[in-house]
């Protein structure tokens, strides 16, 4: 059943980067729900297999709808964004981009594939279909100082490209400017871990999100809460091992600071009970490498932050 949202933002109300001086297009209260209309990552520049990624304007890639300011969110808090619905449109695209991805030396490029979405199924062609797994790639808030384009990820979020960021995920962003200033875009009907050709099924659609504020507590990077686990993130300019180091350090810090683990207990617990995962690792590529660490919800680790 669709969620009725009190507010709606058009796909024309977008930003192309996250920085410290964002101006909100909407100000809401904690508990409010917003529907975001989102563009596909190509902003409508690719519509058929004849449209090639080499011909598009890369200044119009990865728009994010927003930003939204939440009253009462202040630096030192976490902005809590619960993704209630992620609703893709009927048609999406994936591309093979020259000089992008682990198999690029073995394929022809550029190439565009068209995907049709019917109910819970994505059709790549007459032979190949697979389940719908909607998620959003760009989710972020205002930065503490640096201007970061939407192709990149960082401590503010941005192009995190985590396939776990679908319906039901609750994201905690470190607030660094009053109101938090959240924006979202880059929807995928499906995207595999690593996104090894550089795209998922890029698609426009609608995102319905509910907002809250967690006062006085935050992590260094965005943290995601799921039904059975919570997940830390870390990014780097290109080296996945650096991203994994950052995500692991973030997980250990929360275990120690929030749940009373010793650092030795955290080190071993992360090794024996938790999972390191890949969000983004398309290489070669000019964009971020992104890692995550999933911590199961147990009596000793029930949530990212203690009450």
Summarize it.
10% of the residues lie in helices and 38% in strands. It has helices at residues 240-259, 263-273, and strands at 7-9, 14-15, 17-18, 26-28, 33-38, 64-70, 78-88, 91-96, 111-118, 121-123, 129-131, 135-140, 148-149, 153-154, 157-159, 170-174, 180-188, 205-214, 223-225, 229-236, 275-280, 289-296.
Discrete helix count: 2
Strand runs, count:
22
Low-confidence stretches: none
Mean pLDDT: 97
Largest sheet: 9 strands, mixed
**Looking across the biggest beta sheet, what order are the strands in?**
1-5-18-7-16-19-20-22-21
What order do the helices and strands follow?
EEEEEEEEEEEEEEEEEEEEHHEE
Give the distance, in angstroms, between the N- and C-terminal Cα atoms: 31 Å
Kindly estimate the percentage of residues that lie in beta strands according to DSSP.
Answer: 35-45%
Structural class by helix and strand composition: mainly beta
User: What Rg is obtained from the alpha carbons, in whole angstroms?
Assistant: 19 Å
Tell me about this structure.
This protein is mainly β and 307 residues long. It has two helices and 22 strands. The chain starts with 6 loop residues before the first strand and ends in an 11-residue tail after the last strand.
Helix and strand arrangement:
Blueprint lengths: L6 E3 L4 E2 L1 E2 L7 E3 L4 E6 L25 E7 L7 E11 L2 E6 L14 E8 L2 E3 L5 E3 L3 E6 L7 E2 L3 E2 L2 E3 L10 E5 L5 E9 L16 E10 L8 E3 L3 E8 L3 H20 L3 H11 L1 E6 L8 E8 L11
Parallel strand pairs: 1-5, 4-6
Antiparallel strand pairs: 2-6, 3-13, 5-18, 6-17, 7-16, 7-18, 8-9, 9-10, 10-11, 12-15, 12-17, 14-15, 16-19, 19-20, 20-22, 21-22
Helix pairs in contact: 1-2
């Amino acid at each position: 059943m669709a969620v009725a949202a009190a507010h709606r933002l058009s796909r024309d109300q977008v930003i192309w980067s996250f920085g410290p001086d964002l101006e909100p297009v909407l100000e809401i209260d904690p508990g409010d729900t917003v529907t975001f209309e989102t563009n596909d990552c190509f902003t409508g520049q690719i519509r058929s297999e004849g449209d090639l990624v080499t011909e598009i304007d890369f200044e119009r890639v990865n728009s994010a709808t927003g930003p939204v300011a939440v009253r009462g969110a202040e630096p030192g808090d976490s902005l809590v964004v619960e993704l209630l619905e992620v609703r893709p449109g009927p048609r999406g695209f994936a591309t093979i981009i020259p000089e992008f991805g682990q198999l690029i030396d073995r394929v022809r490029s550029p190439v565009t594939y068209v995907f049709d979405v019917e109910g819970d199924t994505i059709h790549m062609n007459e032979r190949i279909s697979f389940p719908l797994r909607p998620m959003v790639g760009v989710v972020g808030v205002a930065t503490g100082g640096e201007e970061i384009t939407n192709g990149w990820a960082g401590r503010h979020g941005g192009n995190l490209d985590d396939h776990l960021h679908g319906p039901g995920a609750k994201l905690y962003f470190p607030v660094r400017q009053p109101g938090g200033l959240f924006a979202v875009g880059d929807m995928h009907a499906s995207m595999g871990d690593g996104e090894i050709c550089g795209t998922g099924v890029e698609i426009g659609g609608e995102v319905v999100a509910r907002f809250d504020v967690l006062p006085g507590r935050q992590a260094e990077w965005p943290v995601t809460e799921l039904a059975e686990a919570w997940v830390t993130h870390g990014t780097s300019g290109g080296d996945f091992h650096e991203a994994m180091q950052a995500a692991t350090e973030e997980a250990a810090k929360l275990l120690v600071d929030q749940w009373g683990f010793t650092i030795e207990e955290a080190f071993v617990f992360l090794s024996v009970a938790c999972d390191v995962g890949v969000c983004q690792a398309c290489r070669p590529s000019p964009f971020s490498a992104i890692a995550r660490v999933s911590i199961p919800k147990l009596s000793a680790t029930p949530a990212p932050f203690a009450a």
